[in-house]
Amino acid sequence: MDTEVYDTLDAHLAAAGDIGKAAVPMGMLLAWCVNMQLVSTAVLQTHERLILRLRFEEAQGSELLVACGGDLQRQMFNPAGQQFLDGFYGEYMGVFQRLFDTDPYTVRETWDNYQRLAVELTRRYMQDQTQAPALGGVLQKLTGWFKR
Length: 148
Description:
The protein has helices at about 10-15, 20-35, 40-45, 50-55, 60-65, 80-100, 110-130, 140-145; strands at about 5-10, 70-75.
């Protein structure tokens, strides 16, 4: 990856009209990364209380995004998260828009919408993992074994 920043709130502010709407797509992705254990130890330690609230659905991913400075930086993710986002983030906003079939800045950050997004992100993540050469074919072998 050429850049150390996947995305920034500033890039979405004009189209969204306000910071709250601009933060929703990136925040929902960040919440999913937290729940999939794809964030770095530094993020977990620095924002421990907020992450705990997020896991209990008492806080939103956009809150964590803003607490992290408003940018999705590569260093915020562990190696598995970086590997996934390096290959996927370029198409994320398009996936988000198609999934909700509307302007991404009109999507409300609800846990029902999060669940809808999480299904698609998890599907893509698992697909990416089954194709990752770094796993030495272990997942492919397990998948083949379970299909028998």
